[in-house]
């Protein structure tokens, strides 16, 4: 039984960054206005995510780490729709607890005292009283201590931290109204203010030069030639494209700074990246890529995100229409700046 559990866990918990992703999603689901992530040695030695969200009442701590603890999925259609959080369908904490030493410590704002529970390699401990601020702190130590095969796949600390950084950056930029911070081995990597301003989040994450070079993107179908049949744009394959893209001179030798979101969800759709790059035409130096934070809204039935829980890939029903909308949106923004 426990072996089955561990194998299943190895499938979904690939590396520290997959754990961080689930924990940050839980914090956002809990309505947090602050999410503080700190990791040791790229997350291989320790992961801590602290939030000021609604918390977990002491009498629900055990259920939170249990199998099928909860399910936000009402029916199978929700799976297909794939908007919002899917995670491991109520099993993220359970799964992480199977392959690490997990502590969940929490206090709902209205509760006088907090409580904590620990899971070690799937063994659930007792709920104990714990002093803590309002909100939830989840600590994950010794990830994969009992799954040596998985542990062997971990890369260098720097590589694991890159993955963690990408995940946390992704959520920080998608949620400018939440103060998101990241710390590695006690040093702050970035901290956003959570003031709701995307440009200010970009400043925190990428620095001043990049933030100042950013150009606003704001596109809707009824403003251009992507109208649908009735001319309203209501059924258009892309409803809206917003965000920021950098001046072509502010570019780097990696595509890592092209962040794209579909219906609020962080995705790595090559179609979106390519469309963005196409919009720059010949304005980028060879092998240089811009910074971009682009939010694309499509009708929820037109996108398939249900490839695999840990994958970020999506497929569009109308890929070419999505491509041309994104290209048009970025082109228009650059044109507005005489580019
Ligand atoms: P899911 O998020 O899919 O429900 P998880 O295993 O990630 O499954 O979490 C189980 C449950 O624990 C959640 O549904 C939620 O009730 C509770 N929980 C987990 N993390 C937090 C958090 N940071 N704040 C408040 N509640 C949380
Ligand atoms: Mg979850």
Automatic annotation (TrEMBL):
Residue segments, region Disordered: 218-237
Function: This protein is involved in the repair of mismatches in DNA. It is required for dam-dependent methyl-directed DNA mismatch repair. May act as a 'molecular matchmaker', a protein that promotes the formation of a stable complex between two or more DNA-binding proteins in an ATP-dependent manner without itself being part of a final effector complex.
Record's protein name: DNA mismatch repair protein MutL
Family: Belongs to the DNA mismatch repair MutL/HexB family.
Provenance organism: Halorubrum sodomense
DNA mismatch repair protein S5 domain location: 202-335
């Amino acid at each position: 039984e426990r072996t089955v559990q561990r194998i299943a866990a190895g499938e979904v918990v690939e590396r520290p960054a997959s754990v961080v992703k689930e924990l940050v999603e839980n914090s956002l689901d809990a309505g947090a206005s602050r999410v503080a992530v700190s990791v040791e040695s790229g997350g291989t030695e320790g992961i801590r995510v602290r939030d000021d969200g609604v918390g977990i009442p002491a009498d629900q701590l055990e259920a939170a780490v249990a199998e099928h603890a909860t399910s936000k999925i009402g029916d199978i259609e929700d799976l297909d729709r794939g908007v919002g959080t899917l995670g491991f369908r109520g099993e993220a904490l359970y799964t992480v607890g199977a392959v690490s030493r997990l502590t969940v410590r929490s206090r709902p704002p209205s509760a006088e005292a907090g409580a904590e529970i620990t899971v070690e390699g799937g063994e659930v401990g007792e709920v104990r009283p714990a002093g803590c601020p309002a909100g939830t702190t989840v600590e994950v130590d010794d990830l994969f201590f009992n799954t040596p095969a998985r542990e062997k796949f971990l890369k260098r600390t720097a590589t694991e931290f890159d993955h963690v950084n990408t995940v946390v950056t992704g959520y920080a930029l998608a949620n400018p109204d939440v103060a998101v911070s990241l710390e590695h081995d006690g040093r702050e990597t970035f901290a956003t203010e959570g003031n709701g301003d995307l440009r200010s989040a970009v400043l925190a994450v990428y620095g001043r030069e990049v933030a100042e070079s950013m150009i606003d993107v704001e596109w809707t179908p009824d403003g251009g030639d992507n109208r649908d049949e009735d001319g309203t744009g209501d059924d258009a394959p892309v409803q809206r494209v917003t965000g920021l893209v950098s001046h072509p001179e502010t570019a780097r030798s990696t595509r890592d700074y092209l962040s794209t979101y579909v219906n609020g969800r962080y995705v790595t759709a090559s179609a979106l990246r390519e469309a963005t790059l196409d919009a720059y035409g010949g304005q980028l130096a060879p092998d240089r890529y811009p910074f971009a934070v682009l939010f694309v809204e499509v009708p929820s039935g037109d996108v398939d995100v249900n490839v695999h829980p840990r994958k970020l890939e999506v497929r569009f029903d109308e890929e070419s229409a999505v491509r041309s909308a994104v290209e048009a949106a970025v082109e228009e923004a650059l044109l507005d700046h005489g580019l």
